[in-house]
Amino acid sequence: MASLDYEQDYGPRNKMLGFFSEGIYTWIAPSAIDESVKVRVYVWGAGGANGHNATSAVGLSNGGGGGGLAISEFDIAAGFSCTVTVGAPARTYNTQGGGSSFAPTSGVGFTTVSASGGRSGYNATDPTGNSTGESNNPQSGNYGQGGVGVDGNIVNRRGGMGGMGGATSSYYQGSGASAPGPDGTKDGRFGGDAFTTWASSAGGASINYRGTSPPAKNYTTTSGSGTAGAGGALNDYNITDGDNWGWPSGGAGLLGAGGCGGNGCGWQNATLSGTNADDGHGHAIWAPNQIFLGGGGGGAGGSHISSSAWFGCNAGNGGPGAGGGGATQYGGAYYANAGNGGVLGGGGSADYYSVPGNGGSAGGGGAESAGSFPANGGNGGAGIVFIQWAEK
Question: For the whole model, what pTM was predicted?
Answer without folding.
Answer: 0.93
